[in-house]
Amino acid sequence: MQLTLPASPTTPPANASARPGVRDAARLLITQADRPLAYAGLGFLAMTPITAGLALLDGRLLDGANLWFKPLKFQASLAIYLFTLALMVPLAGPAFRRGWTGRITVWLAIGTGVFEVGWITLRSGLGLRSHYAETALGSAMYSLMGVGAVVLSLACVVLAGGALLASGRLCTLGPVRWGVALGAVVAFMGAAGIGSMLGETPAHYPVDANDAASRIPVVGWSLERGDLRIAHFLGLHALQGLFALGLLLVRTPSRRALPLLIIAALAWLTGVFYLAALATGGQSPFAAWFV
User: Fold this and answer.
1) Which of 9, 33, 49, 213 is found 20 to 30 A from 227 (Cα to Cα)?
2) CB within 8 A of 115, min separation 6: which ones?
3) Pick from 104, 257, 88, 240: nearest CA to 163
4) Tens of pLDDT along 109-163?
5) DSSP 110-143
6) How far is CA 254 from CA 71, 87, 91, in A?
């Protein structure tokens, strides 16, 4: 008669072993990341040292700042954004990835990013404004850039929706899926909501060359007066922040991880609204420390 020994109490339950840890989950997302989005992000990233070098060699100013700082910021920002989208694609599942919705979303994001970065870099090279331009061409292109910004913002919302509806192996990454979904909502509000406020008027966007000394280098945020770009930046990067938090909580049961992610998203959104209120009131959050 053969005896069957009981399982060791230290042996993890099957459901725990099926749920990957942070490193395994990150490795899984990276190895399955969307290649076109990742390559486009690498392309923008490769542009940043060239643009930084041009900023060092070319001392021309535009609105009191080095004219190469703006394309440098957009190149870096879109590189990060496209890398994030590339990691979101596998969460949406293979069916979404192969379908028309997934392919259109990916290539619209890439094409729009190339348009935005290309136009901003070209205008900077010519010593002209890409935003708040006073010519008919500049105004028309600025309107198109606004449409492009909405398209880019919607891309993460579409991918996040695909992640929530997906089925398959990556469904074990529940907290990550909720993290990208909540991050996409906050990021869209920060991009579309505050971005539209920025597009209506340059009143909360420092363009006075006389206050160049009271700005943060490179990013150009004002240390003395209201600047909506600070709230805009915080809102945009909610996607990366809540994505990362979801990844850190990947082994936490959903019933505990989801409330934590919701609280984090609400706190992030509150911070965005607070900074936007300060800017519209003409105040800088840095004034108490630096001025």
Assistant:
1) 49
2) 144, 145, 148
3) 88
4) 999 999 999 999 998 888 887 776 677 887 788 888 888 888 998 999 999 999 8
5) HHHHHHHHHHHHHHHHTT--SSS--SHHHHHHHH
6) 40, 21, 16
Termini Cα distance of the chain: 84
* 3 CB burial (10 A radius; 0-12, 13-18, 19+): exposed
Measure the CA–CA gap between 286 and 289, rounded to whole angstroms.
6
Q: Which whole-number Å values give the CA distances from 42 to 74, 117, 245, 287, in the listed order?
A: 14, 13, 24, 36
Between 290 and 83, name the one with better pLDDT. 83
Give residue 228's pLDDT.
83
Residues 166, 187 contacting (CB under 8 angstroms): no
Nearest 5°: phi and psi at 11?
-70, 125
Q: Which residue has the tokens 């590339």?
A: 86
* H or E segment and range at residue 185: helix 174-188
Calculate the average pLDDT of the chain. 83
